[in-house]
Amino acid sequence: MKYHLTFExxxxxxxxxxxxxxxxxxxxxxxxxxxxxGGNLQCTTYRxxxxxxxxxxxxxAEKEKAALQGKAYLNYRLSCQAKIYGDVTVFVATxxxxx
Length: 99
Prior knowledge:
Blueprint: E1 2-8, E2 12-17, H1 22-28, E3 47-52, H2 62-68, E4 76-78, E5 88-92
Parallel strand pairs: 1-5
Antiparallel strand pairs: 1-2, 3-4, 3-5
């Protein structure tokens, strides 16, 4: 089954397979996203803000919550960890000002 993932601020919508991570979808569709550790939950630069469809993502594991610290409660997710199970809209946090 395929779902729609929309990236803001580009307003680019792509189709993704069930269980694809947000990072995989971005990389497969030429969406620029800061990343340093290769998706290994080491750097937390893969952050996105969930605009819509939070309920359509995999549950947040304790390691991801710890890495995000308080940002986990502000609808941030690590795109390398969040798997898609429905339509989702994300804001790509490309600026270090959001750190």
